[in-house]
Amino acid sequence: MSEEERLFEERLENWGRWLRDPRRPEISYLYSPPEEEAPAEPKECGMIDLRDALRVQRAWTQLPTFDEKHRKAKLVLAMVYAYPWRSPGKLQSHIYRTWHLKVRRSEWSDLLALGRLCTRNALRRLDDAASIRHNGT
Length: 137
What we know:
The chain is mainly α and 137 residues long. 62% of the residues lie in helices and 0% in strands.
C-alpha cells in the first residue's frame, strides 16, 4: 500500500468515526441505530479531524448517482466505514431494507473499489480547489 493510499484510508476511517460520533448535533442519515450493538471496546479510539471529516463528507455527497451502479457504490462505501464491525452480508441487508437497492455479494468488492475511486477523485478536486483559494493562484 502506497503512502497516498494509506493516507486516503486514514481519511475514510476518520470520516467513519465522524459518522458514528454520538456527540455530533446532527447524525448522518447513513447512521441509523444498529440492530446489534457496536463492540464494547471499539478498536479505534482516535480523535476525529473534524475539518477533514467534513471535507470527505462533502466529497461523498458530490459522488455521482446517475445510475444504480454508482448509487450502490456510494452506499457501500458509506456503510463499510459507518459500520466497520458489521459483515458485508448484514450491510447488504441494511442497504436493501433502507434504500431498496439489491447489492449482490459478487459485486461488493467492485462497488467498494468504485466508491473509493470516485471519492478519491472528488477529494482531489476539493483539495485542489482549497489549495488554489488558499494560495491565491
